[in-house]
Amino acid sequence: MIAAPAITGLAWGRIEIDGHPTFKDAKIWPGGARAWDWRETGTHHQPGILPPDVKELVERGATTVVLSRGVWRRLQVAPETLSWLANHNVDARILQTEEAVKCFNELREIVPLGGLFHTTC
């Protein structure tokens, strides 16, 4: 199993991932990471994380995903995203950002893991 890279730092508006540049928001999967640009899929705080946001993680090998809702939990997860994940047998952990980082780092070497991290509100 290829582990997802560790999250090594988190601050308002920035996330640091081992072996990658600093991002504002990030997508992480087994073996890689990149910036999470909400404009690519039309993501907004409401209705929140959309199926195309998580699909890339699953296509890159994640069987479990950690979805961060932001520091103040303003980012929602669209109901159709939860349905899509369930239909693809993907375990989802939906947490406040600091909690999500802790969970992600604990699971990254145990399961094929992906994550979406929103570093502000």
Strand tally: 7
Rg (CA only) = 13 Å
Class inferred from helices and paired strands: alpha/beta
The first-to-last residue Cα distance is 33 Å
Strand order of the largest sheet: 4-3-7-5-6
Main sheet overview:
5 strands, mixed
What's the tally of helices?
A: 3
Order of helices and strands: EEEEHEHEHE
The shape is globular
Strand-residue fraction? 25-35%
What is the helix content? 10-25%
Average pLDDT level: 97
Describe it.
This protein has 121 residues and is α/β, with parallel strands linked by helices. It contains three helices and seven strands. It has helices at residues 51-59, 79-87, 97-107; strands at 7-11, 14-17, 26-29, 32-35, 64-68, 91-95, 113-117. It has a five-stranded mixed β-sheet, with helices on both faces. A two-stranded antiparallel sheet has the order 1-2.
Comma- or semicolon-separated keywords:
121 residues; alpha/beta; five-stranded mixed beta sheet; two-stranded antiparallel ribbon; 3 helices
